Q: What sequence folds into this?
DNA sequence: CTGTTAGCGCTTTCAT
DNA sequence: ATGAAAGCGCTAACAG
């Protein structure tokens, strides 16, 4: 079984008895080919198992590929994956394919990874910024490559962005707790340094301030060490002399930890998580939910819009969140 | 802000006062360039914001890109994206990037999608087969493109494959139930037509046969209609005059349904799921678990091995499963 | 260590 | 409707 080489346009042309340009026309669907010739070309192509070489095509066409890059920090996070699914779906509608690259959550590798993708001449760049600075993309943006920042805004770069309604969503959750009488409300967040968590924290504080609670530091458990389990953070809140009657979590990780600690607690502690999760319904956990795939779809759409109209203004889009009441957030404070 | 064009090797060469081949050498890291020249080239490249054009490079090098394709049916399935994460991680180690394409679980689009990827000259093809027949890939395989079938074997194609220990894993789970006295054991599976489910069903029957239970049809709930909820399947088992004392689920979907129905049931029904899931520990659900990312890593490794040694034999690898005892699988039968 | 020439497979441009 | 020639940006194969 020898490894034979691939058939080219010229091979097909020779076999079909036409010029390679004619074969090109058939495969580029450029019209202007008689039905007869077309038929012959297709037969020849099939016999030779011809597949057009997109590298050559893209090169000749000025480096325009049909791939779009999505750069993620950590692929194992289900959140990012749903975003990726949304992106892929939207791109597929326009015949584009997604190339996925990860930076292993390392700010240093972001530019390197992006560079490699640019060398591959991706048509647009969607990324979840990890580094502190995306100004290195300015040149590329000026060359006409749409850049869309996903889940957090890019820094030092004028780019489209799509983020969640972090602040409002969390504020709404906390308001629903204050509305039923809670005042001592804990907030757990880890890692707390990132944009989304800072925004959600702001929403938490905002809602508490509205009911006159200004001193919230004692209720906040903001950690950045991944080794500190959310269970510990929750427990430390419960161990306070004046322990909270309700707890909110800044992310899924926190919710999982809270669920483990809070179930079967007597007197029950109210809880609302940010991010929906499997079985949250069965467990009766109230959450701030949103359409993760829509985040991806919107990001892709922004990129495609920019491709269609390079002069379009940059946009900052917020994906709405909604509070889902399932019981845990409706637990009243004691007395 | 005019859209200027990209700098090329030749532009850099002109500015640096060298030949383009020298610039090429600098960027291809081919050595044989004096430190001085190298420095000048890099300066010029930086000034012009030069990024090598990988399309041209790959074309010239004989169509060898540094991308590997992973073809999935449905990206929203968390299982697949953990596989993708494993693949991506393994590829990144060798400087390869993953392009992800989906077929929307439509067998008809599989060949079309794969064709497009081949046109992009991906270096290897990893796929979760959806169609009934992958013989269309035979030509490509003969041209030297490694093809690895993931999670199920390919049909009518001699390709590497990586699958889970489906049969053994499920048999082990059922054996652990029969060992503590269960004989009436339900099996729910939806969709049941696919390879993994058929294998797990076989493992279930095998383990029951070992203890003399041959008539299992009454305990099997094999559905293919996604509109039939696993909850209904579980309920229909419980409604039997001689209802099962234990239930096993063929997949995650079934587990979620079973958990919803079985919690708070009095007399409790034993349960073991296939696939681990978030909070399964908190809920005390016993499962057959496995390393999903390892599935991906192994698939990528197989492809890379074949790239390194095109003559290597095709391999069929099974990723081991392990039974995790968390309580729900240790519930004894009544009396 | 550096340069010249040719050409990867395709499409653009201009003929016919 | 079809074809010939040129060239996209890069590197292989040779020089020197």
A:
């Amino acid at each position: 079984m020898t490894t034979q080489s691939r058939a080219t346009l010229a091979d097909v042309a020779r076999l079909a008895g036409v010029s390679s340009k004619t074969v090109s026309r058939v495969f580029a669907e450029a019209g202007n080919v008689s039905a007869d010739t077309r038929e012959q070309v297709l037969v020849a192509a099939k016999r030779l198992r011809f597949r057009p070489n997109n590298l050559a095509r893209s090169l000749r066409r000025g480096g325009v590929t049909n791939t779009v890059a999505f750069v993620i920090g950590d692929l194992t996070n289900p959140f990012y994956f749903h975003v990726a699914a949304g992106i892929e779906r939207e791109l597929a509608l326009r015949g584009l394919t997604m190339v996925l690259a990860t930076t292993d959550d390392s700010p240093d590798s972001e530019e390197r990874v992006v560079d490699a993708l640019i060398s591959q001449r991706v048509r647009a760049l969607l990324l979840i910024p990890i580094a502190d600075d995306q100004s290195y993309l300015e040149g590329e943006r000026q060359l006409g490559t749409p850049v869309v920042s996903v889940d957090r805004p890019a820094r030092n770069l004028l780019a489209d962005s799509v983020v969640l309604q972090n602040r409002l969503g969390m504020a709404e959750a906390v308001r629903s707790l204050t509305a039923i009488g809670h005042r001592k409300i804990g907030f757990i967040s880890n890692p707390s340094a990132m944009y989304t968590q800072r925004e959600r924290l702001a929403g938490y504080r905002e809602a508490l301030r509205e009911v006159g609670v200004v001193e919230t530091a004692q209720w906040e458990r903001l950690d950045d060490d991944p080794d500190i389990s959310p269970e510990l953070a929750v427990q430390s809140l419960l161990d306070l002399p004046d322990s909270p009657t309700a707890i909110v979590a800044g992310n899924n990780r926190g919710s999982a930890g809270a669920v483990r600690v809070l179930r079967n607690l007597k007197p029950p502690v109210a809880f609302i998580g940010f991010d929906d999760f499997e079985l949250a319904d069965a467990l009766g956990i109230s959450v701030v939910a949103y359409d993760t795939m829509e985040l991806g779809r919107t990001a892709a759409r922004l990129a495609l819009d920019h491709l269609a109209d390079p002069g379009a203004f940059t946009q900052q889009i917020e994906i709405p969140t909604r509070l889902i009441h399932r019981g845990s957030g409706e637990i009243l404070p004691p007395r």
Observations:
- Chain B has 13 helices and twelve strands.
